[in-house]
Design a protein that fits this description.
Elements lengths: L19 E5 L3 E2 L6 H19 L3 E9 L3 H10 L3 H18 L6 E4 L3 H16 L3 E11 L4 E3 L17 E10 L5 H10 L3 E3 L1 H10 L7 E2 L1 E3 L8 E2 L2 E6 L1 H6 L1 H4 L25 H5 L3 E6 L3 H18 L11 E5 L2 E3 L14 H8 L1 H11 L6 E3 L1 H30 L15 H14 L4 H5 L11 H6 L3 H22 L1 H7 L1 H22 L6 H8 L78 H5 L3 E11 L7 E6 L6 E5 L7 H4 L3 E5 L5 E3 L2 E3 L2 E2 L1 E3 L5 E3 L14
Parallel strand pairs: 1-3, 1-13, 2-3, 3-4, 8-14, 13-14, 15-16
Antiparallel strand pairs: 5-6, 5-7, 7-9, 10-12, 11-12, 17-18, 17-20, 18-19, 20-23, 21-22, 24-25
Helix pairs in contact: 2-3, 11-12, 12-13, 12-17, 13-17, 13-19, 14-17, 14-19, 17-19, 18-19, 19-20
Bound molecules: ligand ME8.
């Protein structure tokens, strides 16, 4: 059946029809405690699951721990305890973390579980029987921490090309999976989109990797060197390479090769693939979320393993392809790589305990464009919390509900008509309806969303641009704040209560839509907002969500501020150690004190200039027609600005930390148009957008008070 809005045939890219969505996170090594990088990936997957549920999809969410291999064996040995005891202890640290960050996986898998061992052994036995796993005498360069062999050519300056550490020369018999023979089918699957890799730049990376001949994969480790692993079913002197074991977790969890191991000497029974419907039902809908550093293992080893298995089980080789990968960037801490030796490892739990899990969820979604690196700093956490959550969203709810309580008996006031009556109401309505509109064929043709318009939430969610969900929800909140400011219901209510009622209905209705869109990120506060504004706590799924559904006369409910504000004084205690100090200063809740002076930058007065000198600056008004992040830059946005010229100009602006790309499109800005062109991050910039800074150091656009024609001069 085609999608009712975009007419896309089901089974291809379907944006509007409810579907199934099976999301996985990497399974984390239990060699250390969880850090913010682990938390980011799991939070992102959780947001994706909740967002898909909002679209009406049936979802399944898997996470877990990777418990075999050298890293874990060494970590246990260092502590002087048995590896299994070590795993039991550390896996609990991961498992208990997720609910505290409001992440709700459906299953938590451990690779030491007997059911998983059985699947790994079964898969290997079949590959061996069909000649796809063979023994070879092998000599190569081995990276001990990464547990990988490299050829001479692959080394980077004589060291491991992935981690840069020293390698050792090893010669031994090992077992190899004939991965090389799947190189061409894999390349074709990626090129045809049968395997989709997000963001697209990462797909090119994998295709680049596949330009070189694909080696066969060593899938064993001699027990003499490493005993902590799953024994090969056909050679008791060897255990399974940890990645071969770990990747299979995604399939084990939904019932792949779900059968008991054979009793002595018997054949492995046929797989119960359809059995309870799990594997066949979920596998076509899988999306693997993972960090960019483990893209090769996922996008090369894993699909070829599944091709080999499909062949070995007499299925077409593309029967079990993993359909989608979402490769995320890395968090730096204060612009430095996180490392134990630097003592800058950020504990997600420490932060969540001090400021609440939603602050962490909000911060990571706002700060990181999916796929790109981002920086973690306490100042940025505080700013996003104080400005965006506490001020923009929390205060808006508080003020709106308080006005309804004071002037309208605590009940949703009836709007005087269904159409907006002021420009501010129109702006709110426009943004809300753009976000809610169903996907069109044009949206489907542009799934990467380079568009110069607000994306419908359906497209944002299905194209995994989850940071946009936060930015677009916040853009709507911004319009709502402008509505209260411009229409000033607190003033009009005395002389014109009907006008105030219309404004407040619009504010509550806009909040209802914003809270629904933000629910995947703020799963505790969003229902609370809905309750306070009289919308009930039940979420309306996006395909059914429309403007005007808030019933007049429903009771609103005031309450304590939704988000506390924090003084920077508590910042050092927020999150810099895996083990936060026990006596950390508690947050100063609800502080409404003016922003701290230390953050206010006062520009020094500069020497006088003549009017001619000023006249030499060509400052013009422009309209932003496109805004998007610049790959590998946490600061820059690439803008196209219409200055009334033949074509919009490309301008790079260092405002990415203060604006989501989605907030800028359609905004008018002042541009220094005759600034000499400059190259940044390989892109030419033809001008400069003028900005100021607010008291919290956030960039603010300098704009004309009323819309003017693009290209109008500034004197
Ligand atoms: O790689 N910022 O486990 P792992 C963001 N067991 N993400 C980060 C990060 C950072 N600073 N540091 C690490 C493994 N990560 C394997 C996975 S899956 C079959 C096996 C991410 O615990 C990293 O990119 O070392 C990876 O996605 C995840 O944390 C798990 O890392």
């Amino acid at each position: 059946m085609p999608c009712y809005a975009c007419r896309s045939p089901r089974g291809r890219r379907v944006f509007c029809m409810p579907q199934r969505f099976y999301v996985t996170t990497p399974i984390y090594y239990v060699n250390d405690k969880p850090h913010i990088g682990h938390a980011y990936c799991t939070i992102l997957a959780d947001v994706a699951v909740r967002a898909h549920r909002l679209l009406g999809d049936e979802t399944y969410f898997l996470t877990g721990t990777d418990e075999h291999g050298q890293k874990v064996q060494e970590a246990a040995a260092k502590r002087g305890i048995d590896p299994q005891a070590h795993c039991d202890e550390l896996h609990a640290a991961f498992k208990s973390l997720w609910p505290q960050l409001l992440c709700a996986p459906d299953q938590f898998i451990r690779t030491t579980e007997p059911r998983h061992k059985a699947v790994v052994q079964r898969a290997l036995a079949r590959l061996y029987e069909r000649g796809l796993v063979v023994p070879r005498e092998f000599e190569g360069w081995y990276c001990v921490p990464d547990e990988r062999f490299w050829t001479e050519k692959e080394l980077a300056g004589g060291n491991c090309p992935t981690c840069g550490r020293q390698v050792v020369r090893l010669k031994e018999k090992n077992w190899f999976f004939l991965m090389g023979q799947f190189q061409q089918p894999l390349r074709e699957a990626i090129q045809s989109g049968a395997i989709a890799i997000h963001p697209a730049s990462r797909a090119n990376e994998v295709l680049g990797f596949l330009d070189k001949p694909l080696q066969d994969l060593c899938i064993s480790r001699p027990k003499s060197r490493l005993s902590w692993g799953i024994e090969l079913p056909f050679d008791p002197d060897y255990v399974t390479y940890v990645w071969f074991d770990a990747l299979l977790n995604y399939a084990t969890a939904v019932g792949f090769l779900d059968a008991d191991p054979p009793t002595d000497g018997a054949q492995w029974p046929e797989p119960r693939l359809a059995g309870d419907g799990n594997f066949d039902g979920w596998w076509p809908h899988v999306a693997h979320f993972l960090g960019k550093d483990i893209l090769t293992t996922h996008a090369v080893y894993w699909p070829t393993m599944l091709m080999g298995l499909a062949q070995a089980f007499d299925r077409p080789i593309d029967a079990w392809l993993p359909r989608r990968f979402v490769a995320t960037g890395w968090f730096l801490v204060d612009n430095t790589k996180m490392s134990k030796s630097l003592g800058n490892v950020v504990s997600p739990l420490g932060l969540a305990e001090r400021m609440g899990p939603e602050v962490l969820r909000w911060f990571v979604l706002r700060e990181m464009v999916v796929g790109l690196d981002a920086n973690f700093s306490e100042e940025a956490v505080l700013r996003r919390n104080n400005v965006e959550l506490a001020n923009d969203l929390g205060n808006l709810v508080q003020r709106t509900v308080a006005l309804v309580e004071k002037w309208f008996g605590g009940r949703v006031p009836p709007p005087s008509g269904s159409e907006p009556t002021t420009p501010a109401q129109k702006a709110v309505r426009e943004v809300a309806e753009l976000l809610l509109r169903p996907a069109t064929a044009a949206d489907v043709a542009d799934p990467v969303w380079t568009g110069d318009r607000l994306a419908p939430a359906t497209v944002t969610i299905r194209s995994f641009r989850l940071h946009r969900l936060a930015a677009d929800g916040l853009a709507l909140v911004g319009r709502l704040n402008e509505l209260i400011q411009h229409d000033a219901p607190f003033r009009t209510v005395r002389d014109n209560p009907a006008a105030a009622a219309q404004t407040l209905y619009c504010a509550l209705e806009g909040l209802r839509i914003a809270a629904t869109l933000l629910q995947p990120i703020l799963p505790a506060s969003a229902p609370e907002i809905l309750r306070r504004i009289g919308a009930g706590e039940t979420l309306i799924a996006l395909p059914d969500l429309r403007w005007g559904q808030l019933a007049p006369d429903s009771p609103v409910a005031g309450g304590a501020p939704l988000f506390a504000k924090y003084e920077p004084a508590v910042a050092p205690a927020l999150a810099t150690q895996v083990q936060p100090p026990a006596s950390a200063t508690p947050p100063v809740a609800e502080s409404l004190a003016p922003p701290p002076e230390v953050l206010v930058k006062v520009e020094a007065v500069r020497p006088d200039v003549s009017i001619d000198q000023f006249g030499a600056l060509d400052v013009r008004v422009g309209t932003v027609t496109l805004a998007e992040p610049v790959p590998k830059s946490s600061k820059l946005l690439r803008l196209l600005v219409d200055l009334g010229e033949a074509a919009p100009r490309q301008i790079l602006s260092g405002i990415a930390e203060s604006f989501g790309a989605g907030e800028l499109v359609g905004q008018q800005v002042l541009v220094l148009a005759n600034l000499a062109p400059r190259k940044m991050m390989g892109l030419q910039s033809h001008g400069m957008v003028l900005v100021s800074e607010d008291a919290l150091g956030r960039r603010v656009l300098v704009q004309p008070a009323r819309p003017v024609n693009p290209g109008a001069g500034v004197r």
